[in-house]
């Protein structure tokens, strides 16, 4: 009996390592946008609004694909669904090759949307999978480990790709200003071609991971049985729309993902264009944002629920976001940019805190409620676009006013909104 228990524990640990590798991939691919935005802004000669279509193309796929992903997973199961998601992401990476060769911005955006589609499928499978995999009382610990894997990858991505794509960018931009049309086109074509090798390598790695997961010993988990035990709950309810805490939580998630993406994806461009910091230094600020998030995760694993509740952590996060946002707006230079990076600390505990508060009491409507929260990740598509519009209309620093009402609403949801039944 003891041998069986040990074997089961080893299988669970092996599964956690495999899913951890997936969360690493999520983080790496997602936070590449922070480098792609300034890179494509130069290579495709874009304004701020146009450059933030990179975030839009990546995150709008969550809105479009959340419910179709649930349908696909019902057909394929979790394991095969994760494998399929990685193949879709590889196809998205390969689209970057013809996009670079023709320097077509719309094709780059299409590649990002396809990658986002694969990510939506992966997220829809991996988030509930890691929750159910093992005892429910240790689920928070597993989710924290996944969050750290995700953010470590997010911290590495801008360093690795920044070294390839943003190398000598200030000198290249200075050269471009004095060039004739033909020479400028040739220089921009050469610049765009820098993405070909790294994205080809990424496609190969994604396909390799897909094959590994397809042939892995990951156990298939049955979730429909759990729904039957919850069927008696909320007998009088006929629609998921009858749960105010879910609807208010969905808006909180939408705004949170928007400010999270703004903190990570705009900070390099803000440092360069708004505060005149050289690109070779500016390219590290997204990494600082992700390190701040990792610190926040570690604080959360130590303090929740032993010292503070999830609701209290969410309230503190909202207040901290307001303080850091205002500090960034009313200071200048490196200090202002560092305040934007420190928003990672305010953001760290928001995602894991919104889920249980928004889904509390949903019973048999839990799966549909989860789809609402996945769709709300589209906030990462919309808010950065609004930031880009404000940056073009006013300036890159004033555009950060958008984060203040967002954090204020997150505080409201934590203090009052989640209690409305």
TrEMBL record:
GO CC aspect terms: plasma membrane
Q: Name one GO biological process term.
A: D-glucose transmembrane transport
Q: Which Pfam families match?
A: MFS_1
One GO MF term on file is:
D-glucose transmembrane transporter activity
Q: CDD domains in the record, alphabetically?
A: MFS_FucP_like
Q: Does the keyword Transmembrane helix apply?
A: yes
- Keywords assigned by UniProt? Cell membrane, Membrane, Transmembrane, Transmembrane helix
Limits of the Major facilitator superfamily (MFS) profile domain:
15-421
Would the keyword Metal-binding be found if you checked this record's keyword annotation? no
Q: How does it sit in the membrane?
A: Multi-pass membrane protein
Q: Point out the signal peptide segment.
A: none
According to its UniProt entry, the function of this protein is described as: Intake of glucose and galactose.
Q: Which family does it belong to?
A: Belongs to the major facilitator superfamily. FHS transporter (TC 2.A.1.7) family.
Annotated protein name in UniProt: Glucose/galactose transporter
Source species: Salegentibacter flavus
